[in-house]
Amino acid sequence: MSETFFGLEERILHTKDELAQREALLTSRGLTVPEGEELVLGLFDGEQLVATGALVRNVLQGIAVDMSHEGEGVAAAIVSSLIKRAVDRGITQIFLYTVSEDISRFENLGFSKVAAVPKGAALLEWGSAGIESYLSSLKALAEDKPDHAGAVVINCNPFTLGHRALIEYASSHVPWLYVLVVEEDRSLFPFRVRYRLVQEGVADLRNVTVMKGGPYIISSATFPTYFIRPDANEASQRAVRMHASLDVSIFRMHIAPALKVADRFVGTEPYCPTTSVYNEIMKIILQARETEAFGFDAKIPPVTVHEIPRFEIGGTPVSASKVRDMIREGNLSEVQKLVPKTTWDWLKSDEAVPVMERIRQSDSRH
């Protein structure tokens, strides 16, 4: 049975007409339809869709209200309903995207700000587990480690000689290096495998801590467009830049100070447009001294970005996507040239068989 709010009928959107109305409403507000929606709600005035929102894992996305119903509490109603449905599914930590001007509206619903880009996007969270708990764990980890540490954030799908070269270079230029492995499990190689291969691949480097990235580094919450193949249209490109800016802002405001990080190391990106944009935004936001432009406290120090030329073999950059392409083609002799022995040994194991088959049957960019 559907519920009513402000005389509007709530529905779970299923039909082609309903979803077409939703796309039109999102477009009218400068938004795109999120990928991977699990539940899509709408509020209707008769047969006209006037508000919508969706649950994507534990993230509320695609929140939009028709201009004719703005200021009536309709956005709060759709968000409250999505929270209730998420909690019913056992989700205890929920993230929400909004514009920075609307932060206070959602704070009144119990959300807390994680990061915001002035006159841009903001990421908020709701639930008992929040960023302060996460940061406490980082500070405890870094307590006995040197100041002026470095950081590398990597997905490693899978761990290659290129990743090894970047980490080896970084570890030789800082007193301590944190390698944060993207924890979001949306890659062809499962997180538990990626994490293990990184640990084994750098075990000989004594000033390196390999750690899980957690929910605040390149996740469905902080950077959802990282995990999809972006369209070439302006709205899609704008979404990539918005998400990248939020992700990097969270690193600058929260993660770098907690880990005492002064330097972040990245490889050049010749293949992936999304990662290339991410590197560009990283240089701007992490190194900025005009902190007010990005909404930072002036006491938060900048982080120097070191962009290292991609490791090459025979004049060709080594990348995880190249490894996956070689697996799809069945060219395992070439794969062996691109990965450390630890990765190669795993690829030959029985455990790797289902992963290798999934790669052969997939055209996913991750």
Rg, please?
22 Å
Question: Kindly state the mean pLDDT as a whole number?
Answer: 90
CATH architecture of the largest domain: 3-Layer(aba) Sandwich
* Fraction of residues in β-strands: 15-25%
Cα shape: globular
The assigned structural class equals: alpha/beta
Poorly predicted regions: none
Fraction in helix: 25-40%
Q: Strands across the major sheet, in which order?
A: 1-2-3-4-5-6-8-7
- At CATH level 3, the topology of the largest domain is Rossmann fold
CATH class of the largest domain: Alpha Beta
Main beta sheet strand tally, sense and closure: 8 strands, mixed
Structural domain tally: 2
Order of helices and strands: EEHEEEHEHEEHEHEHEHEHEEEHHHH
Note down, in words, how this protein is organized.
The protein folds into two domains: 126 residues, Aminopeptidase; 229 residues, Rossmann fold (3-Layer(aba) Sandwich), CATH 3.40.50. Helix content is 38%, strand content 22%. The protein has twelve helices and 15 strands. The mean pLDDT is 90.
